[in-house]
Design goal:
alpha+beta, two-stranded antiparallel ribbon, 1 helix, 6 strands, extended
């Protein structure tokens, strides 16, 4: 078992809260708000990340790629 697998859910939450806001060299007016779900799953005493595979479509630039679940933020979504 490695050190990551010994983390508790509380340990993970505390470590994520310690991270500062990410900074990027991108103009903020070129960005849009979005939400991303990064699910941690504990199986057989080991942590795993759950991914999705995007459906294949000729109209989608990211077709068939592995990704985290997420969506654009709309005004109907609670904050």
């Amino acid at each position: 078992m490695n050190a990551i697998d010994q983390l508790t859910p509380t340990d993970i939450m505390q470590r994520l809260q310690q991270r500062g806001a990410a900074t990027h060299d991108v103009a903020l007016d070129a960005c849009r708000e979005a939400g991303v779900l990064v699910p941690f799953v504990r199986m057989n005493n080991a942590w795993h990340l759950l991914f999705i595979r995007r459906p294949k479509s000729v109209r989608d630039y990211h077709s068939g790629q592995v990704a985290f679940a997420g969506a654009n933020v709309t005004q109907k979504m609670p904050t």
